[in-house]
Amino acid sequence: MSKLLLNRTRNILPSLLRIGTKSDIITASYTNNATPINLGVLFVPQQEAWVIERMGKFHKILSPGLNFLIPIIDRVKYLQSLKEIVIDIPVQSAITKDNVTLKLDGVLYLKIFDPYLASYGVDDAEHAITQLAQTTMRSELGKIVLDSVFRERESLNIAIVESINKAANAWGINCLRYEIRDVKLPEKVQEAMQMQVEAERKKRAAILESEGLREASINKAEGEKKSKILVSEANQLEQINRAQGEAEALMRIAKAKADSISLVAQSLKQNKGEESASLFLAQQYVNEFGKLAKTNNTVIMPGDVSNVNSMVTQALSIYKTLNRKETADNDSQTQTNKTD
Question: By the 8 A CB rule, do 171 and 121 touch?
Answer without folding.
Answer: yes
